[in-house]
Design a protein that fits this description.
Length: about 300
């Protein structure tokens, strides 16, 4: 797996577009997130349909066509330096095939931030644009607007990425050891759902795979991992980082399943690394070469996440 192109870091005054690619966005949470971004001396602009709600499907932030148009217009706007997702939920898979990837490639590399349902876009940016991205807190996420650690780590990654080349967590080794590879991953259920989709990468070979999820019963998590195993998608993976399992079964029930499904890979696995749907979530760059030390609970990037 090759390292991807790293976009340029942000500077004070940078314009960032906030888009709703998935679920509907509560206005008060969006305003709180915008206040945080303005406090960082950024210039946030809200996509025209960011506060829309689909007339029939209440789980979508407006129509597929409008969400896709907002996203593409933000990315292709030469005045925009970064695109930040407002929240996750569900909906990227419905709109992603409406994006003009040739036009987005021509717009050049930019910073992209999101997680959860946004996993689908992380995969597409890797395969279609060869671009490194940031798996991090979203602008209207309550876990972002009310948490200093989440804000601080994302801010450092955006403005001074050399200061967070070593990402230290409270994680412990589920399987001990060290491994080097290119970071990738996201929400487990979305990675499983993307098998066979045109934007999905063929395998995690050569990668340090980051996995997390939210609101899933243990047997469903088992099914997603088993699907990836049976499909051969995990063959050649170098190491695994496990994030949060918020609103899933109690972790003492999830943990044995993770050990059972991942232990046979013969690679280091670190658990409770502190990214995903959790308080104080860390920002994890995708598409960069790094070294995982499962025993120490650290991920050391070869280079800063952004140029």
């Amino acid at each position: 797996m090759r390292e991807l192109v790293r976009p340029a870091r942000l500077a004070p005054g940078a314009r960032v577009a906030v888009v709703a690619a998935s679920g509907p966005v509560p206005e008060e949470r969006l305003q709180a997130g915008l206040d945080v971004l303005r406090g960082w001396d950024l210039d946030p602009v809200v996509a025209p349909h960011a506060l829309d709600r689909h007339g029939e499907f209440a789980y979508l932030a407006g129509t597929d066509a409008d969400r896709a148009a907002d996203f593409q217009n933000a990315w292709c706007d030469p005045a925009v330096d970064a695109v930040l997702c407002a929240r996750g939920g569900y909906g990227v898979q419905r709109m992603i095939d409406l994006l003009d990837w040739q036009a987005m490639r021509a717009a050049g590399p930019k910073v992209f931030v999101g997680f959860s349902d946004i996993t689908v876009l992380h995969e597409a940016f890797a395969t279609r644009l060869g671009l490194a991205t940031l798996h991090g807190p979203m602008a209207a996420g309550i876990d972002f607007t009310k948490n200093d650690r989440a804000q601080g780590h994302l801010r450092a990654t955006l403005f001074a990425p050399e200061t967070v080349r070593t990402i230290a967590s409270d994680g412990t080794a589920l399987v001990p050891g060290r491994a080097r590879g290119v970071t990738l991953g996201g929400c487990l259920s979305l990675l499983a759902a993307e098998r066979g989709a045109p934007q999905a990468r063929p395998s995690a070979r050569g990668g340090l795979l980051c996995l997390e999820d939210v609101g899933e019963e243990t047997y469903r998590l088992d099914r997603y991992l088993t699907q990836l195993l049976r499909a051969g998608w995990l063959e050649g993976v170098r190491g695994v980082l496990l994030g949060s399992w918020e609103r899933c079964d109690p972790y003492e029930r999830v943990r044995p399943m993770l050990a059972d499904r991942l232990g046979s890979l013969g690679v280091p696995v670190v658990e409770e690394f502190g990214f995903g749907h959790c308080e104080g979530a860390l920002t994890i760059p995708f598409g960069v070469t790094a070294e995982l030390d499962a025993d120490a609970g650290t991920l050391m990037l070869d280079e800063p996440a952004l140029r």
